[in-house]
Design a protein that fits this description.
Radius of gyration of chain B: 24 Å
Shape of chain B: globular
Strand order of the largest sheet of chain A: 3-2-5
Number of strands of chain B: 31
Strand content of chain B: 25-35%
Largest sheet of chain B: 15 strands, mixed
Oligomer: heterodimer
Distance between the termini of chain B: 80 Å
Structural class of chain A: alpha+beta
Structural class of chain B: alpha+beta
Shape of chain A: elongated
Number of helices of chain B: 9
Distance between the termini of chain A: 23 Å
Chain lengths: 182, 573
């Protein structure tokens, strides 16, 4: 199970089924969306899992288009199918999460990079955090106790097989930007 | 959400030593993004989660997803790092990786066997869940992977009651002919810790008499050292420099504030870290290093003090002063893994010379430590054949006295040795950063600090009575250099070789006209005053019931140094 949490909001953590199909969010200013997508493209390249050439070409093509509404919708269409999850924040800052269209596939002992679409109706600018019971620390460091308590048993440790990192270093940003979709 | 995980490749490893024999080494595996494999956050022993590297033996495997990697193989400081690109393909059903290791020096072949007398299997960077530290098998893997001939795994406060099950008063059954491991004790996290932590080696019994719990042990160190010696143990103080900090030098040459407890500039009156030996400034004696050593050594209760894991000047200063007062406790080298250094076992080490006719045994090795037939350091510089006239370090000399040369009258002696060192031809940015650091910042001992700026050369210093008597420069190119000095000795003296701060030998003692070593009044006064400073700091933490006995021991030490002062000729410096 994976949880998404807004660091400064009341967390409402849901993994409630699969998003049946992601409708593009229409009322989004083009410029900040384009800028965030450009950061995403660079970040995926840096992380060793660049977006496919077809997606890059489509995004490049859209940069020269003049119909802002169509560009905003098309950017989302190009990326939505690559989203593992869709996080929705309603105007009251309540959060819900649904599975995205991407097949959730990992690699043993390796890293995979996934996109998460955030529909941010509240304009929240808190950090988005992702966690999971399986991603908790496998071990408890030394407390220097001569007889330490057993709180993470070997069996429990083995259940903690997952590691999650949210790339927040440049070109990505540590916080949500507050725009309607990113 | 249910994830499906695609299998990665199991890469079969062929790891060959310099002579083609299978061995174990350290592997650092990184992808082009710099991510380390296996992921440290998901490691359990034998892979340590606080390491980037892992240790694998020939014939073992490592699981890697398809991709390209930069792999660096190392095996301790006697080897040259081997670095290469390696690609794992999805199409390859049985990927193989061959690694050929390369040495620049092979000390064991020359009769010198490396050891680290202070590593831990629990506490500090180790975990206490899901298990209480790691197992002897895990420690043995790391010892072999760092080409450490002797690994002394010391149980101590953290996880004491679990880890002590591995102590049996013998060399571990996991040992091999050329790599030995023994479990012993560090008295740390015990009531006496305030006076200095203790390494007790070669013990038969690991519980102090009439104790059930850690809390029952003595609250000062001398009784524990004596108990260790009484059972045939070899005993000394750990991480000697702690509590023995020395004040900075200010730009005008005056002394400023003490640095931080663990080194590094203090905010007030900081300048250049203390860099001269001997240093006659008085340390605070407020830490867990060789503090009560100033009392234990004249009582004959301390066989060695530890070096290489705290600032070199702090460690060596107290030792030099006591040598100047005729005492003969030796130095040994340690890492205090994974506390002071978690990087690897054997980062700080001692090399002990053994009789080439005998196979490696722990008893012979620890006897060599006791006899001072040894040098300490980071392993990046090496030494053999240290002699004064015909007396070799750690061997029987005049009158069969170990390491002692007797001269009928003052005169010339000839000092000889062979030295080799290895630095990259050109200093890397990392090397330059090490050299630029204060001497009390990590790594405290490192050959890069010795590099003569803009060259590959390092100075080899001849130390007489704590002062540099002569110096020669060698190229740190891995080749052995024969060195020789002729020096005049006008009185009884101790002589050592050092490459500061990378290598330091134990002394050879020269007694002239049957006079014991009494170097100067200043060292004797320093030691005498140090006993008082130490007593003031330690007394409040010694149990009332033990305080009289402790005070008597401190008085004995005062008496020793007072006698030295009385014996020193009034015309000595």
């Amino acid at each position: 199970m994976i949880h998404f949490v807004l660091a400064s909001c009341l967390p409402l953590v849901v993994f409630g089924g699969v998003a049946p199909g992601i409708d593009p969010v229409r009322d989004v200013p083009r410029q900040p969306l384009e800028a965030s997508v450009q950061r995403l493209v660079e970040a995926m390249k840096f992380l060793g899992e660049p977006l496919p050439d077809s997606v890059i070409s489509e995004l490049q093509f859209l940069r020269n288009e003049t119909d802002d509404a169509r560009v905003v919708a098309s950017i989302q269409t190009a990326l939505d199918t690559r989203c593992l999850a869709v996080v929705s924040i309603n105007p009251e800052s309540r959060v819900k999460v649904a599975a995205g269209p991407l097949t959730p596939q990992l690699i043993e002992k390796g890293w995979r990079n996934f996109l998460v679409k955030v529909v941010n109706e509240a304009g929240v600018t808190a950090p988005l955090r992702c966690n999971s019971p399986q991603a908790n620390k496998m071990v408890r460091g030394s407390s220097s106790a001569a007889e330490p308590k057993m709180e993470i048993s070997p069996a429990e440790s083995n259940r903690r097989w997952l590691d999650i990192e949210m790339p927040v270093q440049e070109p990505m940003l540590p916080n949500l930007s507050g725009i309607e979709v990113e | 959400m249910l994830f499906r995980a695609l299998p990665s490749q199991s890469v079969a490893l062929s790891i060959r030593d310099h002579d083609g024999k299978p061995t174990t080494c350290a592997l650092l595996i990184q992808d082009p993004q710099g991510r380390v494999y296996p992921n440290p956050a998901r490691r359990l022993a034998p892979d340590f989660f606080f390491h980037p590297q892992i240790y694998r033996a020939d014939g073992e495997t490592v699981t890697l997803p398809a991709g390209t990697y930069r792999i660096t193989a190392t095996r301790g400081p006697e080897y040259l790092p081997v670095s290469f690109e390696y690609a794992v393909s999805e199409q390859d059903d049985a990927p193989k990786l061959q690694i050929q290791l390369q040495r620049w020096v092979h000390m064991a072949n020359l009769g010198w066997f490396s050891g680290d007398h202070h590593v831990h299997a629990a506490g500090c960077a180790h975990y206490e869940n899901p298990t209480q530290g790691v197992t002897p098998e895990d420690m043995m893997r790391h010892i072999i992977g760092e080409d450490l001939n002797i690994g002394c795994v010391l149980s101590w406060g953290p996880c004491w009651y679990h880890q002590k099950q591995f102590f049996d008063g013998k060399v571990s059954k996991l040992s091999r002919s050329d790599y030995l491991m023994r479990y012993d004790v560090e008295v740390s996290g015990f009531p006496s810790s305030h006076a200095g932590h203790l390494c007790l080696l070669n013990l038969v019994e690991d519980d102090y008499p009439n104790t059930q719990r850690i809390e029952d042990w003595p609250s000062w160190t001398v009784p524990i050292l004596k108990w260790g010696q009484s059972q045939g143990g070899i005993v000394g103080y750990s991480h000697s420099g702690w509590g023995l900090a020395l004040p900075d030098y200010l730009p005008d040459g005056s002394r400023g504030a003490l640095p931080g407890t663990w080194g590094g500039a203090n905010n007030k009156q900081s300048g250049r870290a203390a860099d001269r030996l001997p240093d006659y400034a008085m340390p605070p004696f407020d830490g867990i290093g060789a503090n009560e050593y100033i009392v234990a050594s004249p009582l004959g209760a301390c066989d060695f003090i530890s070096t290489v894991d705290t600032p070199a000047v702090w460690e060596l200063n107290i030792w030099y002063h006591t040598l100047n007062c005729g005492l003969r406790s030796r130095i040994s080298g340690e890492t205090d893994f994974p506390c002071i250094y978690g990087e690897r076992v054997g980062l700080g080490r001692i090399y002990v010379e053994l009789d080439p006719k005998l196979s490696l045994s722990y008893n012979h090795w620890v006897q060599g430590l006791l006899d001072g037939r040894s040098f300490v350091g980071d392993g990046l510089s090496q030494l053999t054949h240290f002699r004064v006239n015909d007396v070799a370090m750690g061997h029987p000399g005049s009158g069969e006295e170990i390491s002692q040369l007797d001269l009928a009258k003052p005169g010339k002696v000839t000092v000889t040795t062979r030295v080799a060192a290895m630095l990259p031809e050109k200093q890397s940015d990392a090397g330059a950063a090490i050299q630029a650091r204060r001497l009390d910042e990590k790594p405290y001992w490192h050959l890069e600090r010795s590099r003569i700026q803009g060259t590959r050369d390092v100075p080899v210093e001849l130390i007489v009575n704590g002062e540099v008597a002569a110096k020669q420069t060698i190229a740190a190119d891995g080749n052995w250099k024969d060195l020789q000095w002729e020096i005049d000795l006008d009185r009884s003296s101790w002589i050592a070789i050092r490459i500061f701060p990378s290598l330091h030998t134990n002394p050879i003692f020269v007694e002239v006209a049957d006079r014991p070593i009494r170097v100067n009044r200043r060292s004797a006064e320093w030691c005498r005053r140090a006993v008082d400073v130490c007593w003031e700091k330690k007394r409040p933490q010694i149990r009332e019931a033990e305080r009289d006995e402790a005070e008597q021991a401190y008085d004995q030490a005062r008496g020793y140094y007072d006698r030295i002062l009385a014996e020193i000729d009034s015309d000595t410096p």
